[in-house]
Amino acid sequence: MGDHGNQEIEVIQSWSAPRSISTALMYSFAQRDDCEVLDEPLYANFLRVTGVDRPYREKLLSTMESDGNKVVKEIIFAPGKKKYRFCKQIAKEYVPGLPKDLLKQGKHFILIRNPLDILPSFDEVVPSSLMELGLTDLVSIYSELCQMGKPPPIIDAADLQQDPEATLRGLCEDLNISFESSMLKWDEGPKSIDGIWAPWWYEGVHKSTCFKPGRKYPKPFPFSLYDLLEHSLPLYNILRRHVKQRTSLLKSTLPIPDLPVPENEKLLAWVGDEIVPRESAKVSVFDSVVQGGDSVWEGLRVYNGKIFKLEEHLDRMFDSAKALAFNNVPTREEIKEAIFTTLNRNGMYDNTHIRLSLTRGKKVTSGMSPAFNLYGCTLIVLAEWKPPVYDNTKGITLVTATTRRNSPNNLDSKIHHNNLLNNILAKIEGNNANADDAIMLDKDGYVSETNATNIFLVKKGHVLTPHADYCLPGITRATVMELVVNEKFPLVERRISLSEFHTADEMFLFIERPGFTSDQKIVWTTGTMGELSPVVKIDGRLVGDGQVGPVTRHLQNAYKKLTEESGIPISRSDSF
Fold first, then answer.
1. For residue 510, what are the contacts with CB-CB under 8 A and spacing of at least 6?
2. Is residue 519 within 8 Å of residue 445, measured between CB atoms?
3. How far apart are CA 3 and CA 8, in angstroms?
4. pLDDT in tens, 465-499
5. Start-to-end C-alpha separation, the chain
6. How far is CA 378 from CA 125, 273, 406, in A?
7. Structure confidence at residue 510 (pLDDT)
8. pTM for this one?
9. Which of 98, 115, 111, 104 is nearest to 28 (CA)?
10. What's the per-residue H, E or C state across 14-74?
């Protein structure tokens, strides 16, 4: 086996920001019989290259190797007496000029900690700054390792404190090394492995003998560091998204769900006045949509490079905003530009649904009054790859909800607002009945619409739909009504009772058309999400013979042709 002192050693490098309990983790690994440790071997090189000052600068430079190339080759990757060498590395010490082998060789992992917990104590030794924190460097190291095909495991200091054994077991598994229970405890006091800077930084960890949970309730945050917190938190959150195990006050035990359309995992959304990635697409807790559902919205579809009925949807959005007395509303052109920019950034030119929202905006303080809204409206453009949500080939089923549709006496459905609790309660009833949607009645017991769509039926050669007294006068509804007339079917808009849907004569008469029979009754719903959807069962009763009828097929084809021929083209730039 040769000289035991010259055997090759497997290097494990921990990368973190300062004050991330990285020294405690170093003590943990030092308890292993098969592991030796190094405390920030690149520190002297960092001081030499950057010129930053430290109370112990001269002593450190005179006692530690300050040539980064020598440190990497002759210290970090030097032969050793044990199987593993653990190197505690601080991310900001990864400075230009270091050998590429530093990241290419060995095993790596990243230790992160919330800047809310780092910053209060950091300022005690050196002035806090984004450079001193090194979170930008930590994100860069993670990106470099990923580009090399070596994505490092990431652990959060909060998890390490809350459940050290589970976190260390998971880390060891990711590093493909055995876990040892000795890693959970160490002796109190200074250690021979400490760097010479220990008297300035390690007072707290020297009093420890194990990982312990942090304070149940933290000390007040020093708001002189608020700006630095704003800059550093997004960097922490970038890395935190890749942590396997998380501990938090409201920790969810639910598994990460699969997305209906996996391609939507990576998309860009417009929020306020900027394009942001999916996980960063958030509004302020002071926004009116959070404070009271105070927002209006539209659903649009993109077909073959064009947005269907864009102008009509914008007309309704502006009408809704005016009805709710919104102030400082973006212009029509500004909203269009935001839509076009979002679609172009995502490369979405077909088979796309847009959820366009306009909130009353952010408030200066929490409360109901619109007088607190002094920042202007918040515009949200959420574009997703999304086929029609209903089965428009085989048809859908409906049940009747006990939840009644809002009356104009209370909240007029002609305002296309975000406060959808009335509809959601009906949808819950539909879900509980394993139906696709739920029919909602008005206060007098007549059919209004479903929880999400307008509704039509065909009976005795006539197409019927409820008055828009309680229901939303939908744009798809108006489009289909126009198609019905153009296709020479008689159209009737009136009050329709539920029993007419349940017991209507299945016979119907149409102006004679090739391929149509005259012995069916048909019901369908319309909406931007579902387009024109046939209904084959209501409250357990078959509609007609339970199959999609020919009138529905005919109108579906006519609608499809209309979407192919009309719409506002998505503006694109051919220059770079």
1. 461, 489, 516, 518, 551
2. no
3. 10
4. 999 888 888 888 899 899 999 999 999 999 999 99
5. 62
6. 42, 8, 26
7. 28
8. 0.83
9. 111
10. EEECCCCCHHHHHHHHHCCCCEEEEECCCHHHHHHHHCCCCCCHHHHHHHCCCCHHHHHHH
